[in-house]
């Protein structure tokens, strides 16, 4: 066989000593092939460097063997973890994953969705960057939603973190450490994730007979710089006593820690900070960032499994809430044995 010629199923059959049809059935997972024959054909395919023509297979089956994933920010390690989980699960099923980042831009997202349609992917996992996602009816492909916006679409299968459970984990730990009313660094007001986070905080406060209105709140982008600037604004406010902060994601929390250092203060001696997401970089910060970790990789895996159900026309159309866990590091001061003069977060003078 010429080195310039692509190996064919005929080359595999000849080397394995079987017919062309037998070789084809062995490589497509047919059940009426003995294990010994299948193994012989697989070895022959590997030896000659044969790869199935997935385009031709797709034309016959109506499937491309490809899935799409559109996420808002692949530079955020949490979303990268989601992508890894989705990719691993797709690979287990012999499928490929096309990954796109919308950078929180609805127009960019629309372009990616159009590309997926043109690529004739079998289905897509989407985190809509706009809570008024209006392209669903025109998308024309099986899909599963991830992220907070999914709750606005009850007829679409979706997977996400249990935000209420996660926020409660963080707040319970803050209370245990002597921080009954932390300041909050949240995302933009346009995002449903901000409303869900704030709702969980308010419910927790009401249960403890704490007025949610005393909480200091700063908004910002879900980035390191967004957290840094929000933290500067919080520290510029006059207050008494120790400041505790709950940030809506770890990148914002890491930016907040940078702002504390920039101001010549110390975390956790002067300021306590807890994050949300569980990205690896929080472990390497100094001090290490205490955080509530979302199961990014598990979300990716479950989303792909849900997409398989959509593709096979057997979806349950339900929202799967996945539990989060607390990761203890060193960014929270323990004030539980001290009675602060005033409630942190309410100390305006």
Textual characterization of the structure:
- With 349 residues, the chain is of the alpha/beta class.
- The chain folds into three domains: 9-52, Orthogonal Bundle (434 Repressor (Amino-terminal Domain)), CATH 1.10.260; 64-160 and 296-322, Rossmann fold (3-Layer(aba) Sandwich), CATH 3.40.50; 163-294, Response regulator (Rossmann fold, 3-Layer(aba) Sandwich), CATH 3.40.50.2300.
- It is 42% helix and 15% strand.
- The chain has 13 helices and twelve strands.
- The protein has a six-stranded parallel beta sheet with strand order 2-1-3-4-5-11, sandwiched between helices. Strands 7-6-8-9-10-12 form a six-stranded mixed beta sheet, with helices on both faces.
- Helix 5 (77-92) packs across helix 13.
- The longest helix is centred in the first third of the chain and has 16 residues, at 77-92.
- The radius of gyration is 26 Å and the shape is elongated.
- Residues 55-61 and 339-349 have low confidence and may be disordered.
